[in-house]
Fold:
Amino acid sequence: MTDEHRIQQLAKGNHAAPTRRSFLTRAAGVSALTLPALTLFTSKARAEDDAEIARDFQDIRRHENDHVAFLVKALGDSARPKPNFQNLEQATLPDLAAVTRALENTGVGAYLGALPVINRRAYIAAAGSIAQIEARHAGWINTFSGDHITTNLFGDEQSFERAFTIDEVVDSASPFIADLNGGPPLTFDPTPSDDNDIAILNFALALEYLEAEFYNINVPRFFGK
Structure:
């Protein structure tokens, strides 16, 4: 099976709901189309879908690099060094989608878990803004993978997002982290304070470094620049 076939199956999932392409094909009146016309029509639809997938992954890559730049600037001299990563390069598009799902859903839960502990209002607003973008990423990759839009990393379909504990975030990210490169540990205090805000932002920065590095490696390989 080719990567193209795999990703088409992945996008459709296991449910019986019609895909955008099948809906368009029926709406165009398949029985009235000649074989060459039908081939041309479905080829154009597939090309449009492929272009949209590439665009979305490229957008996510840009967002994660923007998050890194924002947090580094906010932390200034207190910013942690970039950790050393491992196991990030993916062999197939389904592998890429699976890891994307894990990273983006972890990001959503991590920010939600940290937000109540942030002390300064400006940092709460910034973290909440980033969390919203992570949630958009997670919803997109969930539905792209054929799952419910709000399914979290633990397989729960939710009406209210579940916050991750620090240990859950670390467990999810640790297979991709070789070492912290001399940076602070991946943790923060549950008691709000201005000093603890720095630990929280550095916790978030480690995750953003991971996501950005993952996309910087894989998006050019599968989708070009």
